[in-house]
Amino acid sequence: MSTVTCIGAGTVGRAWAVVFARAGHQVRLYDSLEGEAAGRALSGARQTLELFADNGMLDEPVNTVLARIVPVSSIAVAVGKADYVQESVREDVDVKRQVFAEIAANARPDAILASSTSAIPGSDFLGHIANPERALVVHPVNPPSLIPLVELCGTNWTSPEVLEQARALMTEAGMRPIVLKKEIDGFILNRLQFTLVAEALHLVGEGYCTPEDIDAVLTDGLALRWASIGPFEVAHLNAPDGLQGFVDRLGPMMRHLGQSARTDYDWTPEQIADAHKRLAARIPGDRVAERQAWRDSRILALQRMKRDVADPLA
User: Fold this and answer.
1) What would the pLDDT profile of 35-76 be if each residue is shown by its tens digit?
2) Cα angle for residues 114, 16, 161 (degrees, 5° grid)
3) Are 234 and 141 part of one and the same domain?
4) Which candidate, 150, 192, 202, 286, has a CA 20 to 30 Å from the CA of 170?
């Protein structure tokens, strides 16, 4: 692949542009807001690339990589010569249908067309386009420029060859793709993430703990293991006889806690407002950008650690 198009220049779209530009691709960037969005996107891309450079994780000068990202004035111009198109527009099925109809009408028949949708199954908006076998969902974690996981999910029409080509492209671009075997709302990451968030809202809403306690449980507890090994391997390493022994001993407790968790907890607007007030007191609006920059630096520090401390079983 040599030419990649990013449709949508918001937070996710411009992060995708950085991913592809760092991988050496020429990137055409389009947004319906045109100049206004393009200016913000290029400024944000430069900041991200400078962060990589400051952390010794950019092999080329910032300006060399940034020069590969070129804003264009229409979808037709953006996708006309593209080998691969990554859509990152609003999470609205009607909007996505309209955008993909225009993309497919102007793209080459062999161009791969991908959506960044966070929860909508691709079958809801990719089946009506020309050559639907070339279209799929490629769902990143925000921001994809810093977090490598990406979920690939085909539709009933997606060809196995397109899935493999997309998987290879993502791998070569430094991403960590997983391929879903079948469609499901929210894919994998968001189903896990929002299930945990729902139980967190239940625990806070019913007075068991505070929002700060929940965040501490994750950042100073679960995440320290999960940053290197997932929950299946955690269980496997927590018992002398592995996962089977762990479940044999703790299976009843696991089932009980799973059944008593409230993933359908009916939180109230007042509970959300209270949690927001507590967060805003600690991170006021005029310091959100500063906190985001700190978060991004920590993510890259963790990435460096994972790179430098090799997995002997990889």
Assistant:
1) 788 899 999 999 999 999 999 999 999 999 999 999 999 999
2) 35
3) no
4) 192
β-pair type (69-71, 3-7): unpaired
For tokens 């080509």, the residue is 165
From the list 177, 175, 176, 135, the residue with the least C-alpha distance to 154 is: 135
As beta bridge partners, residue 113 has 85, 135
Q: What is the pLDDT of residues 138-180, one digit of tens each?
A: 999 999 999 999 999 999 999 999 999 999 999 999 999 999 9
81, two tokens: 């010569």
For residue 239, the enclosing domain spans 189-282
SS3 87: strand
* Domain boundary pick from 179, 209, 244: 179
* In a shared domain, residues 218 and 252: yes
How many domains is the chain built from?
2
Which strands form 84-87's sheet, in the order they lie side by side?
Answer: 69-71, 26-30, 3-7, 84-87, 112-115, 135-140, 149-154, 176-179
Verify that 144 and 120 share a domain, yes or no. yes
Mapped onto helix, strand or coil, the DSSP state of residue 222 is helix
β-strand pairing of 149-154 with 135-140: antiparallel
Partners of 86 in beta bridges? 6, 114
Chain-centre distance of CA 94, in angstroms? 22
Can the peptide bond before residue 143 be classed as cis, meaning omega within 30 degrees of 0?
A: yes
Residue 276 amino acid letter: H
Diameter over CA atoms, the chain: 61
